[in-house]
Design goal:
Layout lengths: L4 E2 L9 E3 L22 H4 L5 H8 L4 E3 L2 H7 L7 E3 L1 H7 L4 E6 L10 H13 L4 E6 L3 H12 L3 E7 H6 L1 H9 L3 E5 L5 H9 L7 H13 L4 E3 L6 H21 L5 E5 L4 H15 L9 E7 L4 H4 L1 E6 L8 E6 L21 H8 L4 E5 L1 H15 L5 H20 L4 E6 L7 H8 L10 H8 L7
Parallel strand pairs: 5-15, 6-7, 6-9, 7-8, 10-11, 10-15, 11-14
Antiparallel strand pairs: 1-4, 2-3, 4-5, 12-13
Helix pairs in contact: 2-11, 3-5, 4-15, 5-6, 6-8, 11-12, 15-16
This protein binds pyridoxal-5'-phosphate.
């Protein structure tokens, strides 16, 4: 019988991250400061350490992974690459379906891949405290864990609706020693202003980012960490695709299609960009490679947003980034894939999408849960609602293969398990979940507030 789990040894953990900037036909547009001029390292130095800023602006193809980071990665990496044979059989498809399983990390998702180096570089720079925001709780728990690995205090602003809905994520963060506050909070000027306007403000990722950035900018011993979107986060996540390439080499296969859910774009870039590197290098195996970023129809950033300069947060604290955006004051509906409710997208993913090098798809909520349940019933693993988006697209591609008789190799990023999202599955089973397509007028209204640049 063929191997269905393709494993690597600890010694196979990559020694370098891959930076897609080195291979982009159009380099990413620079972030802009409040004056409309390219943001200076000094402006960003208030919230990030030098090593992270260097990575953020680097065009080097390979960037070494510090030994201390590889040591912590060894707690769960290399992650398995698994062939979903039982899912293939259930679908009756000739396609080979593989998933890279990132749910084996302590926090249960791909996010510690970046949380660990971020905590490390901050400690090296003499920082004692980290702030961050979290939606579904995935990033907050990752940075809480990573902070603990390197002896840093962590304060997490958690989107208020999630704070109420996800007590176990909050408790995970507290178990790893972090302080957690519902956002908007009374701790920052942003939070106080919003609560004065509406005491029941449910919060959003954008608001929580504003609060975490405000605190970090105001304290010398404190820096901010972001779980997706920025170039350095996408860089750190390249470990996923780099490992997957080694695993495919072991079995002499190569994917035709690479699929990942897309919130801020780091898990997508992380798995897809190392394969795009082969395409850029003229590798025949990658000649027809397709990479698909999958987003919810309720937060359709790539498929219905605009490629423009916008803020990363609701209050306009962050530099302006050129990215696909739904507008920084976009209020996503309370769908059950919290990690995908962000108005923007990675500038790297955005530029590559704009240049036609990658594809995007938007899928409705009910179809993603259906796919997640089908996956759980064939492969056993209960996927995170975010990951269900990739599963939906992978199943759809496999069904196209069934219709055409093509035996394609499909790889998707199983970004996390859904053990803390069972209440979302409960709503799905009891028929309380709905499809929500963001109305065109609402998209137009928030896009009308894009900052004017140049
Ligand atoms: C955060 C998260 C995502 C979205 O990741 P991005 O890198 O921001 O696109 C997907 N899946 C899971 C399980 C997550 O926690």
């Amino acid at each position: 019988m063929e191997a269905t789990r393709i494993l690597l040894d600890a010694a196979d953990i990559p020694t370098h991250w891959y930076n897609v900037v080195a291979d982009m036909p159009t380099p990413p547009a620079p972030p802009l400061g409040p004056d409309g001029k390219p943001a200076t390292p000094a402006q960003m130095g208030a919230i990030f350490p030098g090593a992270i800023l260097e990575q953020e602006m680097s065009a080097a193809r390979w960037i070494p992974i510090p030994d201390e980071v590889r040591e912590v990665y060894r707690l769960w990496r290399p992650s398995p690459l698994v062939r979903a044979v039982r899912l293939e059989q259930a679908l009756g498809t000739p396609a080979k379906i593989f998933f890279k399983y990132e749910g084996v990390s302590p926090a249960g998702s791909h996010k510690p891949n970046s949380a660990v180096p971020q905590a490390f570089y901050n400690r090296e720079a003499g920082i004692r405290r980290l702030t961050t925001e979290t939606g579904a709780g995935q990033w907050g728990s990752s940075i809480a864990f990573a902070g603990q690995m390197f002896g840093l205090e962590v304060r997490v602003y958690m989107v208020k609706v999630s704070y109420g809905q996800k007590p176990y994520r909050r408790l995970m963060m507290q178990t790893w020693g972090a302080e957690v506050f519902a956002s908007p909070s009374e701790l920052t000027a942003t939070g106080r202003r919003l609560l004065a306007e509406d005491a029941d403000n449910p919060g959003s990722l954008g608001i929580a980012i504003s609060e975490a950035v405000e605190e970090a900018a105001g304290r010398a011993d404190t820096n901010y960490t972001l779980g997706s979107v920025l170039n350095h986060v996408v860089l750190h996540q390249s470990i996923i695709g780099l490992e997957a390439k080694k695993q495919f080499d072991k079995v002499g296969l190569y994917p035709d299609i690479v699929i990942a859910p897309c919130g801020g774009g780091s898990s997508f870039g992380g798995i897809a960009f190392p394969f795009l590197a082969d395409k850029a290098a003229g590798d025949k195996r990658a000649e027809h490679l397709r990479c698909i970023a999958v987003e919810p129809s309720s937060c359709p950033t790539l498929t219905r947003g605009q490629f423009a300069y916008d803020y990363g947060d609701a209050s306009g604290f962050t530099p302006l980034m050129k990215m696909y955006t739904l507008g920084h004051d976009f209020m996503p509906p309370g769908i059950h894939a919290g990690g995908l409710r962000y108005h923007g997208d990675s500038p790297l993913v955005s530029q590559l999408f704009h240049d036609g090098l990658i594809e995007a798809a938007a899928v409705p909520q009910l179809a993603t849960f259906e796919a997640g349940v089908q996956f759980a019933r064939s492969e056993g693993i209960i996927p995170a609602p975010e990951s269900c988006h990739a599963i939906r697209a992978a199943i759809d591609e496999a069904l196209k293969c069934k219709a055409s008789g093509e035996a394609k190799t499909i790889l998707f990023n199983l970004t996390g398990h859904g053990h803390f999202d069972m209440s979302s599955f409960e709503r799905f089973f009891s028929g309380q979940l709905e499809n929500y397509v963001y109305p065109a007028e609402a998209v137009a209204a928030s896009l009308a507030h894009l900052p004017r640049v140049g």
